[in-house]
Amino acid sequence: MSHPRLVLLSGWGIDQRIWQLLDGCWPSGINAQPVEWPGYADAPALPTHPTLAQLAASMAASLPSDAVWVGWSLGGLLATALLDYLPAPKGLILLSAGATLCSEDGVRHAELASFQRAFRRDPDATWRHFLRWQAQGEPNARQAYQRLHALLGDSPKADHETLSQGLDWLATLNNQARLAAANCPIVTLTGEHDPLMSPGQRRAGECLSGVGHCPMLSQPHALTAEISRHAARMTNARTEVV
Description:
Rossmann fold; 10 helices; 242 residues
């Protein structure tokens, strides 16, 4: 039996430091490697108004086919979209991500458009508001936000153009057709109280009890165990579709 190799992909406005919250929690034998999206931390940014093909080209070396990709939030949306451009991985685990962000009974398009306008006026303050929004579904929302703030600081580790493009992708990506035709196993893990996922989106995935959008903050051991269980099955399956 092969040990799973995981590639961990972060969400909007948050670099790979978010995965430090899982350090020491992974079961023995798991190789979990965070990677940075273009424009975050020291990773070179993409050109203005990049295409998904350009994103795929920049991420090709970081997203090997012999790994299980774990995409959180926008990271899950983008990882799914890149299935059109890159060799299929052993499997894809979507954490706090569905086919789209916006829905009529969840985050509405008008709500996201308002957020985009606020971001153009004051990017850093809007980013901090987003951290608070993400933390709302955790058992102790105030403590969850304080942990995020302590980890990430007062401003995002990404340029404003990269963040603006990320918001555009959040507004426009719809992976329903990609998920239906995917050529690798896919599992969706969704927090029971995720404020960014609609009730329908939460029901469509496997429920992570008692957590919201950021389960790495409140239940790191349970999260790593669940990811590892699915990754092991994906890594050692031949034709199984989850």
